[in-house]
Amino acid sequence: MSGEDQERFEDYLELERYIEELQAGRVAHPPHDLTPTQARIYRTAALFRSASPDAASPRPEFAEALRNRLLALDQEDDEDDTEKMVAIKKTEAPAPTVPPIEEPLAVPLEAPQVEEQPAEPEVPMPTSKEIPRRKSFFSRRSLLTGSAVAAASLVVGGGIGAVAERSAATPPPPTARPTPGNYGGTPLVQNGVWQRVATLDQIGENALRFTTDTIVGYLMRSDDDEDGEKKGEIIAFSAACTHMGCIVQWDGSDHQFHCPCHGGVFTEYGKPSPSSSFKYLASLPRMTTQVRGNEVYVLVPKNSK
Hints:
- The chain has helices spanning 3-23, 36-49, 60-91, 140-169; strands at residues 193-199, 208-211, 216-221, 234-238, 249-251, 256-258, 265-266, 286-287, 289-292, 295-300.
- The protein is an alpha+beta fold.
- Strands 2-3-4-8 form a 4-stranded antiparallel beta sheet, with no helix packed on it.
- The relative contact order is 0.12.
- InterPro entries: Rieske_2Fe-2S, Rieske_2Fe-2S_sf, Rieske_Fe-S_prot.
């Protein structure tokens, strides 16, 4: 096997493992240094993962724009159907008419004077082709767009009632106690295992990335430049973007995390940045940390294997 073939085979195996992790519901992380082609493949896999029930609801303006585009597409399909019907009517041959049956003239023995009556016009027999019938066209595009428009309408307004009914019928999950250092939020992992991920000497001014069997995250040392963060405190959070799960990358030039998939930006403490085009996103989920001497431990999800 040549070197290029071996590299392609390894890329395939890595993509296969990535998709298996997504299907199993675990946090999956694409590799570094992706080519443009590989990046498109991984974005597609993340897109399918985002269709799960746990994915965030789309913005109302996005759903409305999608609905308008689908309606325009459906209108174009109807115009195509009308043109097809006109073309078929032009090509149809006229229906044949049944000629009247000529009866032999009877010659009377005597020729009485009979007043001639005007003959009634013959009415042609109706045929099946003369019955007007609207032809229907069910193209795959019109069927899909019709269903998608209905789905988009549910996203905008119709589905809100159903979601509210399900929420009322389902008891809320138990709320975990806020963990110190989580800025009052619920930690990402509540029943996990403690794992050593770094030492205090490794954590400087920049974010330190760590990887375990179940999660990829970042460690950050607070410098007391944001409300709710104690100076010197070790903060940990997941590296999975809250948009579609892509792994954010640390940029030391602006001290922010950037999502390589769709341009999301988070501050050094994991909050949505004002410079991000996705300001509605949630913060990067915090994780519970523990310092034992010079070693830093993080509560990570258990490995199901």
